[in-house]
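Hi V.,

You were right to ask for the full record rather than a summary. Here it is.
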Amino acid sequence: MKDGSNTLVLLERLGRLLHNDAHREDLKPTQWEALRLLSRANRFSRSPGAVTAYLGMTKGTVSQTLAALERKGLIKKVRVPTDRRNLALELTGEGKTLLRKDPLADLEAAARRLPKRQMAHLGDNLQDLLTEALRRRDGRPFGACKTCRYFQPNVDGGRPHRCGLLEEPLSTQDSQLICVEQEPLG
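Predicted structure:
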């Protein structure tokens, strides 16, 4: 076996545990992933197209996933005020409540038991691994706005920040959410 293969086997096992747990609350794993994304995404990234890019699935599969979530009353589609042709996806109150029962919470609790420095190092390494895997597939990174090359902090006329790509103001809260347009620094 090559170096690092044990790590990948462990990641696979963790993934399988999460996948198995993700059948809770009458949801499928992909539906949980979509809910998680919508809870962490900025206003530019709560569209069916952004969910498709994030999940790396076909439009048809994501369309079925979103339709199921809408039927269950967990999300709703709303027209974008600035562009009536586009739809934005929003979590409903029920969707936000259900996320408190997220099966990922068990793993998060286990992770909190690790030393903070060790978790930060693990996070950095997993981010690098994910970035490389996405690069090989022409996938999008979906990072936080504040880590994007287009992020302009403390700009006059911003709220208090600005997205240089979309020429849109960003609040401090916006800057911490993930974005479909994110391009890492450097």
